[in-house]
Amino acid sequence: MDRAAATRRKLLDTAARLYAAKGIDKVSINEIVREAGQGNASAVHYHFGTRDRVLLALIERHAPQIAQRRRELLDAARSRPRNVRAAAEAVVRPITEFAQRGWRERAYLQIGSELAQALDRTTPEIREALTQAEGIEAWKLMRARCPKVPEDLWRERQQICIAFIGRAAADRARLLDRRERAPVMPDDRFVDNLVDMVVGAMTARHTGP
Question: Could you tell me the residue ranges of all domains in the chain?
Fold first, then answer.
């Protein structure tokens, strides 16, 4: 890896840590440069340009990996018509598996979850990059297979579940990282339970107007 590529990677890693820990809007470009140990105050601007380009680079670093696994699960789900749980697997499993890979992946899940909850405040390029992970297609399949509820309620349930899945996967992976591990349930049982919870939330009976 050449010097420019190494600097770019270090800036991206630093941005990922800070964004995941503090939230995207609470981290400045100057803080990223300082925490990355860069003497040049314009390092981020040189390598990326803007904060949005940093976020785009983070998405493009990870989204294709999630997309590949999700496409496999979507193919499996489509071979089981009307099965809600199979669709939920395509939503949940790529995220829970991704979180097991390392801290960069866990940071990305937190950043991606935050962006997904504020798409109206992101750039078209970021919105387009987020679709690479095929999450939209998985949720469309869930929508088609779940009992019908008003659109506003569906969107609210969906956003809650997106944040919940990402947080649950990242928290579990961090727990497994600890040297002195607390007792945790096996991976398959954890994922099965998370899928069950998402199915329960998205198929809950609608009792309002």
Answer: 1-49, 51-202
- Please provide the CATH number assigned to the domain covering 51-202: 1.10.357
Spatial distance between the Cα atoms of 184 and 164, rounded to a whole number of angstroms: 18
- CATH class, range 1-49: mainly alpha
Q: Write the burial class of residue 129 (CB in 10 Å: 0-12 exposed, 13-18 middle, 19+ buried).
A: buried
Q: Which amino acid is at 10?
A: K
Q: Which residues contact 64 (CB under 8 A, 6 or more apart)?
A: 132
> What is the pTM (predicted TM-score) of this model?
0.78
Per residue in 150-181, pLDDT (tens digit) is: 999 999 999 899 888 988 887 887 777 665 55
| 162-201 CB burial, b ≥16 within 10 A, e <16 | bebbbebbbebbeeeeeeeeeeeeeeeeebbebbebbbee
